[in-house]
Amino acid sequence: MVKPALVVMAAGMGSRYGGLKQIDPIDTQGHLIIDFSIYDAIAAGFEKVVFVIKHEIEKDFKESIGDRISKIIDTEYVFQELDKLPAGYSVPQGRVKPWGTAHAILCCKDVIDGPFAVINSDDYYGPNAYKVLYRHLMRSDKDDRLGIALVGYILRNTLTDNGYVSRGICKVENGKLLKIDERTHIETDGSDAKFTEDEGKTYTPLSGDSIASMNMWGYNREFIDELEKRFPVFLDKALKENPLKSEFFLPVTVDDILRDGIASVDVLTTNDKWYGVTYAQDKPKVMAGIQSLKDQGVYPKTLWK
To answer: 166 near 183, Cβ under 8 Å?
Structure first.
């Protein structure tokens, strides 16, 4: 069996951070969140990483991240560009927005030859998340052609005290995903949470024990073939209805696959705490969390010797 690869979606890093050289370290040794992601993935058993980037950030990405990672693990680069479209399609005039996360994975079709995991480049997922996902990918049932898995987080372990967040709230039954409800405005409420759909006029309680998707997925190689079939269908609709902004999203595509009855989705829960710098005020909490994990011996002082 081909060992699972790790796909890191990083094509949007330049725009989110105003240039890669402005990325802030999250410890005094200068490590970035992505360093901890790769470290945890290697510890779990992953032996190959695929970075999905854009040509315009290639030089900065390799200088800031890729060159040191490539000394530790087999590294590939894939470029997500607007003109990577099926034959017969062209980029709409005025389009600058990327085609979305499912398109990013589709761009990997020539370098992925087995099961693979997908993460965001700027999210900290925790060591257990990689372990449970790696184990799933290694034993993925051949009868389940697409082998889809989602790592589910305890909602309260993903929230910030500094504002509201968007989360996909999962409905799970017997370890299988039934649906994901996208909540675009969730706030903490003691040990629980609440969400609003009318700009704060009314709120609906949400259990802190709810399972949230943080976009950490696992798939078999055949999932890319499924994306390849679905992308033209997406484009036919998108180019008519919203040619400049429509995106081919992974969660939406998985939801479509669920509704079509083509595959099921295993939900792999973890108690790891998720960290991300949604707001500038989040950074001290992230740094403190990472330092606490170092103090507990989860990470060495310096990741890469």
So the answer is: yes
Q: How confident is the model at residue 136 (pLDDT cuts 50, 70, 90)?
A: very high
181, 180, 208, 182: which is closest to 194 by C-alpha? 208
d(CA 251, CA 118): 12
3-17, 35-49, 287-301: which range is least confident on average?
A: 3-17
Render pLDDT for 167-209 as a digit per residue (tens, 0 to 9): 999 999 999 999 888 898 999 999 999 999 998 999 999 999 9
For the chain, domain boundaries: 5-152+213-295
Residue 8 CB-half CA count within 13 A: 28
**Cα gap 118→216, rounded to integer Å:** 6
Whether 245 has a pLDDT exceeding 90, the answer reads: yes
Q: How many CB atoms lie within 10 A of CB 289?
A: 16
Predicted local distance difference test score (pLDDT) of residue 12: 81
**Record: fold of 5-152+213-295:** Spore Coat Polysaccharide Biosynthesis Protein SpsA; Chain A (3.90.550)
Location of structure tokens 């991240």: 65
Inter-residue long-range contacts of 25-33, CB under 8 Å, 24+ positions, other chains counted: 26/283, 26/286, 26/287, 26/290, 27/287, 27/290, 27/291, 27/294, 29/301, 29/302, 29/303, 31/290, 31/303, 32/64, 32/65, 33/121, 33/122, 33/123, 33/124, 33/275, 33/276, 33/277, 33/286
Contact by Cβ (8 Å): 278, 284: no
What is the spatial distance between Cα 108 and Cα 98, in angstroms, rounded to a whole number? 15
